[in-house]
């Protein structure tokens, strides 16, 4: 039996975060398998059921929501409404720019701040590299742009001591910068 709308096990979609749509459909389809839901109309009905009411209303009026239209077409039409929801659009270079701008604005004053920035940056940059939208050298060059000037100077000073022959035209590798950042911020928990 499929879960009810308010069941904690019911799939959830957050329309304010389009990236959750892919996971929503994955969760929904796991329930379809478990509950032996195979009909297109049933699948579309359940896909609409677990969404907020305004989303349900929108999805209900899609031409692909009509009887006889395959569930896969419905799913594609829904995905088209949410740019950034497909795996091919997971991240854009503008997402990395936004992260850099945000972090430069709010700063990095603790190890926790740095850890969050490092995770977010790595997630976006690694995906962009895998998609051929960025090189590792570009990633390394961009990483320190999210650092406040005072922290950046302290890290660069340590890196220059460790590698005095480093070519100034080449960025330091992300892992080396991360290691020195952790050292500089080691006594600043939260």
Describe the protein's topology.
Blueprint: H1 20-35, H2 40-49, H3 53-60, H4 71-80, H5 93-106, H6 111-130, H7 136-143, H8 149-162, H9 174-184
A few lines on this structure:
With 190 residues, the protein is mostly helical. It contains 9 helices and no strands.
Textual characterization of the structure:
The protein has 190 residues and is mainly α. 58% of the residues lie in helices and 0% in strands. The chain has helices spanning 20-35, 40-49, 53-60, 71-80, 93-106, 111-130, 136-143, 149-162, 174-184. The longest helix is centred in the middle third of the chain and has 20 residues, at 111-130. The protein is elongated. The model has no long low-confidence stretch (mean pLDDT 93).
Shape: elongated
Q: Gyration radius, to the nearest Å?
A: 23 Å
Span of the ends, CA to CA = 46 Å
Oligomer: single chain
Q: DSSP helix count?
A: 9
DSSP summary, beta strand count: 0
Main β-sheet description: none
Strand content: under 5%
**How many separate domains?**
2
Sequence stretches where pLDDT stays below 50 over 5 or more residues: none
Secondary-structure element sequence?
HHHHHHHHH
Provide the helix percentage.
55-70%
